Amino acid sequence: MEIRLHNTLSQKLETFKPIKRGLVSMYNCGPTVYDYAHIGNLRTFIFADILRKTLEYNSYTVHQVMNITDVGHLTTDGDDGDDKMTRALKRENKPFTLEAMREIATFYFEKFVDDLKSLNISSPQEFPRASDNIQEDIIFIQELEKKGLTYKISGGIYFDISKFPSYGKLGNISLDSLKDGARLTINPEKKNPADFVLWKLDSKIGWKSPWGVGFPGWHIECSVMSRKYLGQPFDIHTGGIDLIPVHHNNEIAQSESAYNEPLAHYWMHGAFVTVNDAKMAKSVGGSITLKTLEDETISAIAYRYWLLTAHYRSPINFSLEAVRGAQNALIRLMVTVSSLPTDGKVILAYKDRFMAYINDDLDTPKAIALIWDILKDNNQSDADRRATIIDFDKVFGLKLDTIKKSEDEEIPDEITALAEAREEARKEKDWVKADALRIEIEARGFVVSDTPNGIKITNK
Fold first, then answer.
1. How far apart are CA 199 and CA 197, in angstroms?
2. Is 453 exposed, middle or buried (0-12, 13-18, 19+ CB in 10 A)?
């Protein structure tokens, strides 16, 4: 069965055809590890994970690379402001050294990996770090320099976009939309407002280069790391929609100019998670992390389920009530699946429908709805219904196969979190809250009992 994906480059649904038969090369723009990832960031990586799992479900082998930006990502698209990593040094009162920057990056990278594990996101084969590829960046910039595509100003070495006539072709971006006051800030030294930095000069912190001490621009890092690990061209490049106008168009401009061939054949972008219909990163919601959800007794897997009820290219507006509703549905699904026998076979008619949905540009809302249709279908055996749903979960990643039917079964994280919150309320003598939590647990099909050895949770 063919797979159709929305390609931002053509702005159309296209039938996916990999460069090498049976093998998919995929690059995901990864996090800048200067702080904890918020849940808006994490939607991009769940989308990439669903894409990978869909490709694998279709029997492709996927070579996935996700970069880690630990230097060079400035606070504005106009290559001005602080490096986000140096801002982290100031925030955490660390010395202004590369060693301290590496220490901070490692800390937040490890926290990011923890988030991926909590969300059941498959780990990529490579996690290259920008700071480990400085010499490759320099060689790439020198290649552009040889072709007369760069110029130097007081702030660093810049790419001249006038030498790349098709600049902005990704997403059909008009340069007028990027002019001063829109995405870019005024720099009278630049030849064009949209020219971007390849090497940022900084005498205080950085690496030696032919142009002076400094560090690579954010855009050059992705071009270098994707080419190094996947070759050029590779199959699929993903990211959030905010990367289309500047970052990804800059990658295309420099990579195609340097090596005279496309960087990637398919460009795919996920929509925002919004709070009160504003982009999370620019709202008060920017501080909402998985830990925030955990404190509200919402699990990471419930958040994943909630995101799958919307198409990856559609914005989704966050509220605790919406995610709690999704968690309630997930718990019902877990409890139902755990009650079904385990010796069934996948129902092929449903599998065909499932593949038609996920292969149509990752239509997870229809695929999720199909699960509930299966559970209502009394013409199928219980065992076959369970086997079919567990098969679909290879794409969904909801860990449904870990739920066991027995007195000693593993209790879902969501129920455990509610029980722990109830116990904490009891310790604080907040009896109203404790009783409300008990009622909530029972409404979800479980019983919490207080024993001399602590609390015990069982199925009703």
1. 6
2. exposed
Beta bridge partners of 62: 24
Lowest-pLDDT range, 22-26, 221-225, 321-325? 321-325
DSSP 179: S
Q: What angle separates helix 320-338 from helix 413-427, to the nearest 10 degrees?
A: 120
How many whole angstroms separate alpha carbon 357 and alpha carbon 348? 14
CA torsion, points 349, 355, 356, 361, in degrees to nearest 10?
Answer: 170
Helices 134-146 and 218-230: angle between axes, nearest 10 degrees: 100
Contact between residue 219 and residue 1 where contact means Cβ atoms under 8 Å apart: no
DSSP state of 126: B
The C-alpha atoms of residue 296 and residue 122 are separated, in whole angstroms, by 25
As beta bridge partners, residue 446 has 459
Cα of 108 vs its chain's centroid, Å = 15
Phi, psi dihedrals of residue 43, rounded to the nearest 5°: -60, -40
Nearest to 158 by CA among 225, 92, 78, 237: 78
Q: What is the DSSP string of 148-169?
A: T-EEEETTEEEE-GGG-TTTTT
Give the separation between CA 421 and CA 69, rounded to whole angstroms: 37
To the nearest whole number, what is the mean pLDDT of the chain?
A: 90
What is the H or E stretch that residue 390 is in? helix 382-396
Q: Which of 44-48, 191-195, 269-273, 353-357 has the lowest mean pLDDT?
A: 191-195
Rounded distance, CA 426 to CA 432, Å? 9
